[in-house]
């Protein structure tokens, strides 16, 4: 930690070399110092390293921690969001209790990863398993990964990287489907800044007025004449045996009423019983086969619903690929691109003006981004608390905000105010330099972005004009292919509606 320096020429230099334990011909020269947040859990309870002989497994803990720092943006594996009381108060205590914030079972350890941090799913399973072995109880007996194992595993991961389709500077392991750096940027977390590359526009003979005239000249396809269910004459399918039709039920009811009337006429003094018999017969006849009838109605209703969905899907497909709807949608997309093309020059100028307008704020942010908390002297904030801040993405004065610092466990009003005062002292040292308001790289990045966009739009408009010209021919072929499917779907819907009407 704090032993790697990167220059503006991208050269990386390692500095500082100390804290060695040396075995010289049987005489052990011990190292009596250590950094608390790099000390393995089994040694955290020691008050002094005097007389302690370190093992390779002890050293492998610090090695794994350094690798974790490198891969996860300076985060400390034991610093996270407390999930219960007594967790997160001191980094040393969390290390001693194996509170690995990124562990598979971090919930049971009482701590979760910091907000908006790089997820552990970023690395392949083999590396995740090595971190788990290094930072949990499993590594104490001697099971922490060795330097040789790290070299082999990281080299293997290096040959299984792929590039992001949206950014030229995003590279990630190929076991992931989507770019994790893009996902973080959508949350407002950026680890990489693309200053762009030199862009040179080429003369391709593109004239917007000519291309748009071709697009406007392409005729809109005529509206489609689609088959409808009402075009087909079908007969309802017979009901299953045991289910009376509506006519049969009506006949049963008439017979029941007739019997009741006959009883009333035959025996006048029992007319009331004839009336009762007629009413009861009416309801009994109506209930005959009612459960079977209800079940059959539900079945036929489901068939009709499925047929309706199939028909609607076929109609939507035909309108999209062969009718005017798809054509007009495509032309509307091209119209938006044309409008954007006409405003590109103004948009580029506005963005360059914005660079000048925000120059002082950006210079100040850059200055604060070079004020590292690690090298600062802040009352009450020692190495362990600085490591906790780093694990929450707070590494420089530019990262400091009151709400952000307050999220870190152990930082109350007093320590938060101390960090804010340190940031204010950094801000007071900032001096704006108008001569370097906007760098050539920043201007080049803007011109590169809009130049690339211009090339993309011109290619899309040229391609779109040709697509619209070929649309009519393709629409005819598509409709011929879909006609039989449409007719079949319409006939099926007509049959389903007729079958349901029988009930």
Defining key terms:
16 helices; two-stranded antiparallel sheet; mainly alpha; extended; 503 residues; single chain; 8 strands
What features would you describe in this structure?
The chain starts with a strand and ends with a helix. The chain has a two-stranded antiparallel ribbon. Strands 3-4 form a two-stranded antiparallel sheet. α1 packs across α4 and α11 (324-357) packs antiparallel against α16 (440-501). The protein is mainly alpha-helical. The chain is extended. The chain is built from 16 helices and 8 strands. A hairpin with a 5-residue loop joins β1 and β2.
Q: What global shape is seen?
A: extended
Count of beta strands? 8
User: Reading side by side through the largest sheet, how are the strands ordered?
Assistant: 1-2
Mean pLDDT: 85
User: For the terminal residues, how far apart are their CA atoms?
Assistant: 80 Å
Query: What order do the SSEs take from the amino end to the carboxyl end, as H and E?
Result: EEEEHEHHEHHEEHHHHHHHHHHH
Number of helices: 16
How big is the Rg?
A: 39 Å
Class computed from helices, strands and strand pairing: mainly alpha
Instruction: Bin the helical content.
Output: 40-55%
């Amino acid at each position: 930690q704090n032993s790697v320096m990167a220059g503006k020429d991208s050269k990386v230099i390692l500095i500082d070399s100390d804290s060695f334990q040396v075995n010289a011909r049987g005489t052990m020269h011990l190292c009596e110092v250590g950094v608390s947040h790099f000390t393995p859990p089994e040694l955290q309870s020691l008050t002094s390293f005097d007389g302690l002989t370190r093992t390779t497994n002890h050293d492998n803990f610090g090695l794994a921690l350094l690798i974790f720092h490198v891969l996860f943006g300076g985060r400390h594996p034991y610093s996270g969001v407390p999930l219960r009381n007594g967790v997160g108060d001191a980094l040393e205590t969390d290390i001693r209790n194996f509170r690995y914030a990124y562990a598979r079972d971090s919930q049971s350890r009482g701590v979760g990863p910091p907000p908006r941090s790089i997820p552990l799913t970023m690395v392949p399973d083999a590396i995740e398993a090595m971190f788990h072995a290094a930072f949990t109880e499993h590594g104490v007996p001697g099971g922490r990964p060795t330097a040789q194992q790290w070299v082999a595993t990281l080299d293997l991961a290096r040959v299984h990287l792929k590039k992001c389709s949206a950014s030229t500077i995003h590279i990630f392991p190929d076991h992931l489907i989507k770019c994790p750096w893009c996902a973080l940027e959508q949350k407002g977390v950026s680890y990489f800044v693309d200053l762009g590359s030199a862009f040179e526009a080429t003369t391709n003979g593109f004239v917007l007025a000519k291309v748009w005239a071709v697009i406007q000249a392409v005729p809109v396809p005529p509206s489609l004449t689609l088959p409808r269910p009402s075009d087909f004459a079908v007969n309802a399918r017979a009901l299953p045996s045991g289910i009376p039709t509506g006519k049969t039920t009506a006949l049963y009811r008439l017979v029941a009423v007739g019997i009741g009337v006959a009883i009333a006429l035959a025996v006048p003094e029992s007319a009331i019983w004839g009336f009762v018999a007629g009413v009861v017969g009416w309801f009994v006849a109506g209930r005959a086969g009612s459960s079977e009838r209800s079940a059959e109605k539900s079945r036929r209703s489901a068939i009709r619903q499925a047929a309706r969905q199939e028909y609607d899907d076929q109609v939507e497909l035909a309108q999209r690929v062969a009718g005017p709807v798809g054509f007009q949608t495509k032309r509307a997309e091209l119209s938006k691109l044309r409008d954007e093309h006409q405003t590109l020059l103004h948009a580029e100028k506005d963005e360059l003006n914005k660079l000048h307008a925000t120059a002082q704020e950006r210079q100040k942010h850059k200055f604060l981004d070079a004020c590292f908390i690690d090298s600062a002297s802040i009352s009450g904030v020692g190495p362990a608390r600085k490591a906790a801040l780093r694990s929450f993405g707070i590494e420089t004065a530019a990262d400091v905000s009151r709400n952000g610092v307050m999220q870190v466990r152990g930082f109350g009003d007093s320590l938060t105010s101390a960090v804010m005062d340190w940031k204010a002292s950094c801000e007071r040292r900032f001096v704006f330099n108008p001569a370097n308001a906007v760098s050539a790289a920043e201007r080049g990045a803007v011109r590169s972005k809009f130049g690339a966009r211009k090339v993309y739009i011109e290619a899309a408009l040229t391609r779109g004009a040709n697509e619209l010209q070929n649309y009519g021919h393709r629409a005819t072929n598509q409709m011929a292919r879909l006609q039989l499917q449409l007719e079949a779907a319409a006939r099926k819907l007509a049959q389903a509606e007729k079958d349901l009407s029988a009930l």
